[in-house]
Write a structure and sequence with these properties.
This protein has about 200 residues and is mainly alpha-helical. It has 2 domains: about 5-80, no CATH class; about 85-200. Helix content is about 90%, strand content about 0%.
Length: about 200
């Protein structure tokens, strides 16, 4: 194989490398062949002593990969060191963020809890009023004012039942909106944490 053919094959095999790296590699092997020819070797003999161009490229790319892996490992090591040293700062901020998020969640669910408790309380009161209605009428006496008292208690029970239904509807719609808002808040919090993680990486 002549020098020109060798360099052409080597250039074709080096297409993955940047232009400057290809030029530097080709110049190196061009000078290396010339030096061996000056030492008395023939052109084909000097070229043959260098080996196959494909093998040369594999060795070069292997060195490039090892160098990149070494840089990546070093970078990860420095990142771990920085994370450990910066833990008092970012750890405190992370805990504060989680506590703040929990407080917001609690504040969001307070109206839901109150409405649910009111709905249950009004419903129980309405049931007790309806159950106690016959006993009230019998105890007071139908002709001695038991009928008006019974009608009043019946109206009160119906009113409490209506309030229970209204609170239950408020509980449902408020809870639905609160869960949706909580999911959106959690999604934004995770997105913020992931963005900070990518910046640190």
């Amino acid at each position: 194989m002549t020098k020109q053919i060798f360099l052409n094959e080597l250039a074709a095999a080096l297409h993955q490398l940047p232009r400057e790296e290809r030029y530097r590699t080709l110049s190196y092997y061009d000078e290396l062949i010339d030096d061996r020819m000056e030492d008395g070797q023939g052109e084909e003999e000097a070229v043959a002593s260098l080996g196959d161009p494909e093998q040369i490229v594999r060795e070069i790319l292997g060195e490039e990969t090892e160098e990149q892996e070494s840089k990546s490992t070093g970078r990860k090591a420095w990142l771990i060191v920085l994370l450990i040293l910066g833990f008092p700062l970012w750890g405190t901020l992370l805990i504060a963020g989680i506590v703040l998020l929990l407080c917001v969640y609690i504040c969001l669910f307070i109206p839901v809890i109150v409405l649910g408790a009111l709905a249950i309380g009004f419903l129980l009161a309405a049931i007790l009023g309806a159950v106690g209605l016959p006993f009230l009428v019998l105890d007071v006496g139908l002709m001695a004012g038991g009928l008006p008292a019974g009608l009043f208690q019946l109206g009160l029970s119906i009113t409490l039942l209506g309030l229970s239904v209204l609170c239950a509807l408020g509980f449902y719609f408020t809870g639905k909106a609160t869960v949706k808002a909580g999911r959106e808040l959690w999604r934004r919090f995770r997105r913020s944490v992931s963005k900070k993680g990518r910046v640190m990486a």
